[in-house]
Amino acid sequence: MIGKYLNKIGLKSKIAAKNLIKVDVKKRNKVLESYIGELSKNRKKIIKENIKDVRACKREDLVDRLTLNEERIENIRNSISQIAKFKDPVGKTIEKWKRPNKLIIKKVTVPIGVIGIIYESRPNVTCDVSSLCLKSSNVAILKGGSESFYSNKILANLFRNSLSKNNIDKNCVQFIENKNKKIVNYLLSKMNNYIDVIIPRGGKNLVEKVQKLSNVHV
């Protein structure tokens, strides 16, 4: 069952990645702008879903990082706004040299493809890494922690809505809703045909890792 479920997600991601390569940065930025609007329009729904996670949380040390409120949603919107302003990281020449035979060689940035991201109880990560992946023409498969399940789900679905509204395959971002503990092991060991790189649990530095991997810079 797990294999069938994840392979289906993987296949959709591969198809989405092929289509995303054709989408220019202006359209990618429009998705991010739409998402900023979705987060604003759905503040109450987001907080309502977040409250489910907070009430179910059994670890007091996680409650603060798990909690979403008006201020934190606004901070997320500002973060995405900054990502939208970043220069297009795709097709950027990062190194160039000439061989003795006058052959010119360039090192040019290209999308990785499908990025699997495993993270824990920070709902803002769902928004940040989805935005960074899209900005760099990469597809994201998200495996968030069970503590923030409802928060992550609505935030991912709003991103998928923003993709659809801009006529881009919504499967550019997929959130794994299955809570089976074997999911992570399967992602790490049996998804090579679908996932090009996986970023495992990275705590506070996970977003920075995605940003570096995506080659997204101001």
Descriptive account of the structure:
The chain is of the alpha/beta class. Helix content is 54%, strand content 12%. It is built from 9 helices and 6 strands, in the order H-H-H-H-H-E-E-E-H-E-H-E-H-E-H. The strands form 2 sheets. A 4-stranded parallel beta sheet has the order 5-4-3-6, sandwiched between helices. Strand 3, helix 6 and strand 4 form a beta-alpha-beta unit. Helix 3 runs antiparallel to helix 7 (149-165), helix 5 (70-85) packs parallel to helix 6 (124-135) and helix 6 (124-135) runs parallel beside helix 7. The N and C termini lie far apart (43 Å).
What coarse outline follows from CA principal-axis ratios?
A: globular
- Write the H/E string, N to C: HHHHHEEEHEHEHEH
Secondary structure tally, helices: 9
Q: Class by helix and strand content?
A: alpha/beta
Portion in strands:
5-15%
Question: Which spans of ≥5 residues are poorly predicted at pLDDT below 50?
Answer: none
The largest β sheet comes out as: 4 strands, parallel
The beta-strand count equals: 6
- From the alpha-carbon coordinates, what is the Rg to the nearest angstrom? 18 Å
Order of strands, main sheet, comes to 5-4-3-6
* Average of pLDDT: 92
Distance N to C terminus: 43 Å
Helix content range of the residues, please? 40-55%
